[in-house]
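step=encode ok
step=design start
structure_in=
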């Protein structure tokens, strides 16, 4: 019989990783205001109907899923999915009293509730699709098609690759511009009336410190903004009142299932 020795170092690392995930989930919940504003505007423009069943893929801590639940009303349903268990925990805790709102740990590739039947009227994603690896983006599109009813809509708001973005060793970077997203939908087929726009959206932060906190918590968890301060600083403009503006090259995709 092999005796398994308690590995103190690994145990400590697991605790650190868990604390880091908790801290990022909490920071994300506190400083994602500008991103939430952009996402709410995108959702309003979709003209959701009362009674719609809506999936929110990559829902984070659930703020916009709740926004969707309010629009579709008690006869509708908003389902938030995220692979980050800490974010789902915060979302569930915040909105446990809301009847037409559910959250699940899952993802766009491995799966989510009702992913293999035409169940949802609208499949939404805000600020998440750009982080899905390119091969998985194709699976995302296929799965979104499968879970939508005939006449259903796929709507994605995400970031485009910044043309002058410098690669930071070890950090995750964005891969696609407008044409890349367009080609991807054409290659996969399935959807009709695919429209891919590329608006520039200004995110405003109270200070550079707040921007850095959001930047890390939002997705760049593999990046320490303080180690790359010069590079990160180049992304923003400091306004006269000390606030900073980050002009985000965004991607706005809508597509229909016949
Ligand atoms: C920047 S947050 C956006 C949260 C929220 N939708 C918003 O707009 O505020 C991106 C989220 O995408 C999630 N995510 C990453 N890969 C994913 C995938 N393959 N499927 C679903 N969600 C994913 C992350 O865990 C993260 O919570």
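sequence_out=
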């Amino acid at each position: 019989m092999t005796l398994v020795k308690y590995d103190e170092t690994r145990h400590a690392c697991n605790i650190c990783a868990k604390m880091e995930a908790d801290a990022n989930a909490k920071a994300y919940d506190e400083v994602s205001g500008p991103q939430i504003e952009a996402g709410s505007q995108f959702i309003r423009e979709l003209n959701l109907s009362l009674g719609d069943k809506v999936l929110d893929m990559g829902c984070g801590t659930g703020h916009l899923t709740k926004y969707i639940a309010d629009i579709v009303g008690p006869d509708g349903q908003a389902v938030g999915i995220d692979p980050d268990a800490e974010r789902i925990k915060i979302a569930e805790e915040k909105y446990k009293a809301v009847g037409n709102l559910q959250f699940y740990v899952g993802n766009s590739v491995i799966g989510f509730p009702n992913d293999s039947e035409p169940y949802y009227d609208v499949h939404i994603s805000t600020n998440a699709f750009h982080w899905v690896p390119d091969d998985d983006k194709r699976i995302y599109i296929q799965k979104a098609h499968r879970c939508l009813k005939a006449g259903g809509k796929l709507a994605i708001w995400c970031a485009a690759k910044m043309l002058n973005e410098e690669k930071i060793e070890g950090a995750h970077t964005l891969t696609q511009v407008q044409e890349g997203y367009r080609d991807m939908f054409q290659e996969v087929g399935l959807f009709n009336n695919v429209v891919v726009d590329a608006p520039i959206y200004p995110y405003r932060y109270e200070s550079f410190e707040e921007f850095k906190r959001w930047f890390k918590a939002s997705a760049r968890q593999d990046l320490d903004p303080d180690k790359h301060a010069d590079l990160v600083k180049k992304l923003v403009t400091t306004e006269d009142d000390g606030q900073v503006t980050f002009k985000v090259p965004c991607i706005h995709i809508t597509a229909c299932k016949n």
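step=design ok
step=annotate ok -> Confidence is low (pLDDT under 50) at residues 1-19.
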